[in-house]
Amino acid sequence: VKLPVVTNTQVKTFRRCQREHHYAYRLGYRAVDSVEALRFGTLVHCGFESYWLRVSLEDTLALITSKAADEYEAAKARALIIGYFARWREVDDAGPLPVAVEAEFRAPLRNPETGAPSRTYQRGGKLDVLFADHYMEHKTTSEEIGVGSVYWKRLTLDAQISTYFEGASALGVDAQRCVYDVVRKPGLRPSQVPILDEHGCKIVLNANGERVRTAKGRFRETASAADGYVLQTRTETPEEYESRIIADIAENVNRYYQRGDVVRFESELEEAEFDVWHLTRSMRESELAGRYPRNPDACERYGRTCVYFDVCCGTASLDDASRFERVENVHQELSQVA
Ligand code: SF4
Fold first, then answer.
1. 3-class secondary structure for the chain?
2. Ligand 1: residue whose CA is nearest its atom 5
3. CA of 296 to the centre of ligand 1 (A)
4. pLDDT tens, 189-217?
5. Spacing, Cα 30 to ligand 1 middle (Å)
6. pLDDT digits (tens, 9 = 90+) for 47-61
7. Which residue stretches of the chain have pLDDT < 70?
């Protein structure tokens, strides 16, 4: 019998809010518009996968362009991937070859007390890159990722890493360490740039829409709020935006790309095992009881509102097809449910 799969994302969702878990994992409702940040992360992830599958930079960029929601999103993702190739290609060419890329696993969920496998669930997940003695996980974040940053400290609490050691083992690899490959998302947004005339001069207009001249008779190129002189601007093109991000990355490579080893001690692995075991027990209990408590403390997170907020408030319905769709495979990151 194939047991239902539990993933780390699912356990995290349950820990955050049981109602959210119920909507997303038991009923399978997902927001139609995936939030911008999540979408961008997925897009860049495609680039990483291509990188490890040794697809050329050119083809990787074409893939990203074809999957992006708009030209600016594509430009941002392309810039990040161009930087990634420049930062790591030589290093990785000199290193070991991966055994597998995007390797899915299933592993028993064990009671850490007795070692007996659960008869309710099995574990499932996907390792981004698996090597003969370690694995690598890609992450994109908006946070500071420098050495000693909070981001790196938090990783030691992350149960995901522990689960994935088990996953590697299920795939026949005795992983000694996990390498976190972290990429910081560019904070730069498309900006306004001056419109230039045929001579390359900026255009400044007065309140009557006429071009302003300086005392020397030249065209004025600076705005003046006091005089009502307005510099004429336009939004930069996706190409200009991409070049600007690439230039910023080139100047601050270490702010954008970091890798670090995360080694787990036996005691940490055990604690993470208990965390997951007890959370999945509660998951089962809530299912049997048919009760899914809401957690209002989790409705706002990372500056975003939970996608089910209006449903919980009673002002929207999960059956509203313009907002939610029902998915068959609740583990969208995996190819099959079991
Ligand atoms: S809106 Fe709040 S209570 Fe409702 S599912 Fe989301 S996190 Fe839970």
1. CCCCEECHHHHHHHHHCHHHHHHHHHCCEEECCCCHHHHHHHHHHHHHHHHHCCCCHHHHHHHHHHHCCCHHHHHHHHHHHHHHHHHHHHHHHCCCCCCEEEEEEEEEEECCCCCCEEEEEEEEEEEEEECCCEEEEEEEECCCCCCCCHHHHHHCCCHHHHHHHHHHHHCCCCCCEEEEEEEECCCCCCCEEECECCCCCECEECCCCCECECCCCCECCCCECCCCEEECEEECCHHHHHHHHHHHHHHCHHHHEEEEEECCCHHHHHHHHHHHHHHHHHHHHHHHHCCCCCCHHHCEECCEECCCHHHHHCCCCCCCCCCEEECCCCCCCCCCCC
2. 20
3. 6
4. 999 999 999 999 999 999 999 999 999 99
5. 13
6. 999 999 999 999 999
7. 1, 34-37, 156-162, 336-338
